[in-house]
Design goal:
alpha+beta, 5 helices
Length: 190
C-alpha cells in the first residue's frame, strides 16, 4: 500500500499506574498510588530497593520490589544515586513499567490510566500509483500497551464522532489495522 505521508503518534501515560490490592488498613480491595519515593535497605553487602505505593484511603504502604538482595555495585551508579535521592522521574518511569507490576504480582487498574496522544513525527512523502495511493497514513504507537478504545482515539484524531468514523470505515474511506495487544495501530485515509 502506498501513501503520500505518514504521521506518527504515540500514546503516553500521564501518571504512574494505580494498583488494586487488598489493604490491611481498609480491610478490603483498595487503590494504591505511587508516592514517588524509594526505599533502599542494606543487609550486609546486599541491598533491596522498593518503589513505595500508598493506599488512597488510609495511607497504608505497599512495597514493589525493584531489586532484591543484590550487590550495590550491580546497580548502575547513576540509578543507585537516583534511588537514594527519590528521583521523581525515575519513580514515574518504574511506576509505568508493566514488568515491575507483573514480577510483583500486582494488578494495574486499567480504567484509571490517563494518557495523551502525542504527535511523534512525520515521515517523508512516498510516491505511488494515483489509483492505489492513500492521502495519508496515521501510525499510533502504544508501547506501554495501555488498553484503549481504538474507535475513540481515531475519532478524536480525525475530529469526528464515533458513528461518523464507523461509517467512513464501512465505506472504505478509512482502513484500520491493529497489531496484537494494540501496540501499533495503522490508520489509512483515502
Amino acid at each position: 500500500m502506498s501513501y503520500s505521508k505518514i504521521i506518527s503518534y504515540k500514546i503516553v501515560p500521564q501518571e504512574s499506574y494505580q494498583v488494586i490490592h487488598n489493604c490491611p488498613g481498609c480491610g478490603g480491595k483498595s487503590h494504591f498510588i505511587n508516592t514517588n519515593t524509594f526505599r533502599v535497605n542494606a543487609n550486609g553487602n546486599r541491598v533491596d530497593v522498593w518503589l513505595i505505593y500508598q493506599c488512597m484511603v488510609c495511607k497504608h504502604t505497599l512495597n514493589l520490589t525493584i531489586y532484591e538482595r543484590i550487590n550495590p555495585s550491580s546497580i548502575p551508579p547513576e540509578e543507585y544515586q537516583k534511588f537514594l535521592e527519590n528521583d521523581k522521574e525515575l519513580s514515574r518511569q518504574y511506576g509505568m513499567d508493566k514488568l515491575l507490576f507483573s514480577r510483583n504480582k500486582k494488578m494495574i487498574d486499567q480504567k484509571q490510566i490517563s494518557y495523551l496522544l502525542q504527535e511523534d513525527k512525520e515521515k517523508p512523502v512516498v510516491k505511488g500509483n494515483e489509483k492505489s495511493i492513500h492521502k495519508s497514513c496515521i501510525e499510533i504507537n502504544n508501547e506501554h500497551a495501555i488498553k484503549i478504545r481504538v474507535d475513540k482515539v481515531i475519532s478524536n484524531l480525525l475530529q469526528m464522532t464515533r458513528s461518523q468514523e464507523k461509517k467512513a470505515e464501512q465505506e472504505g474511506r478509512i482502513l484500520v489495522e491493529q497489531s496484537v495487544h494494540q501496540k501499533k495501530i495503522m490508520l489509512y485515509i483515502k
